[in-house]
What does this fold into?
Amino acid sequence: MLFETYKMKKDEFYLKIANALSGCQLVEQELKLYLTNALEFVSKCIGKRMPFKMKGEDYANSSLEGLIKAFKKLSNNEALVKDLNKFKDERNFLSHQGITHCLDWDGDFSDSTAAELQERLDNIEREAERLQIAIYEEASNFLSHLYFDDFPDE
It folds into this structure.
């Protein structure tokens, strides 16, 4: 029974990590959508005046860091870029070291360390939601132009 309780706590913690990190995937998706729309907008603005072959799909397999670097080149919102970089660092810790951080030298799961990480998991989940909205709002600066403005073919 003790082993089953231990395993249940461990499995519950792993699910909490997965749930929190799913929001991180949505931030990446929102960045990819932003890049796709921004590059399409640039392409429409340039028209046929010069070749412009960059597309959102160029970033389909990019890391979060790569997406943030590309976003930075297509946005003047330095505060959002700073927040995204901070988010990336926390996401990297939680996704790459969060589980192992909760294991002791013998590989046993530590409830107390997992409890300490709970607040960080809750925070990153909330931050992921906030950043998704912020990226979408940043895109709203040009989306109406992309969809509704006429662009010359020249």
In short: The radius of gyration is 20 Å. Residues 2-46 form the longest helix (45 residues). Residues 1-6 have pLDDT under 50 and may be disordered. Residues 2-148 form one domain.
